[in-house]
Amino acid sequence: MPDWVWEQTELETLVLAENDLTEVSKQIGRLKKLRMLDLGHNQLVQVSESFGDLDGLTDFLYLHDNRLAWLPPALGKLTKLRYLNISENWFEEFPECVCRMSNLIELRITDNHLSAIPNFIGNLPRLRELHLRNNQLTSLPETIGMLEELRLLDLRGNPLTDLPEAIATLPRLEKLDLRWVTTLKPPAWIATLEARGCVVYR
After folding, report:
1. For the whole model, what pTM was predicted?
2. φ, ψ of residue 77 in degrees (nearest 5)
3. Does the pLDDT value for residue 41 go beyond 90?
């Protein structure tokens, strides 16, 4: 990236998608007025701690379709961010910093290698959409029941063997997607969800 980009400190939107980038300068932290950052469809293997300095980031952060296996703890400082897409990467563990992004409304972490979701997922009280398609999940934590604003839970293509009954208590859940899940015996409480109008795809 040319250095002059980091001098544009009034920028609110920066789209760097599809550039085969392998790294992004630490100077990106100077762009404190950014509201939307798109780094999708690159070759990034890491992002720097300076991303945590983008405290104006409110609208979107796209990091999908890269080679990321880890996110720095500093990203947990992005507490105003509403939309995060880290799909199509190499995550084997759920990035803990994400659970500190307390204003997230939509989280996409599909097509990775996650085998578990941490209890900290319950720390995202405003989350409305949680997309976990095509991972290696066999279950979810009971704390999923703390996501009282959740409307959509996408679990397609996971080797699920168990789901917590806490899902049935989610007051605003409208869609539960279990398509391409062949390992799960449907829990009895699914009928409760459907009876109240939640659409369950299976």
Report:
1. 0.97
2. -80, -5
3. yes
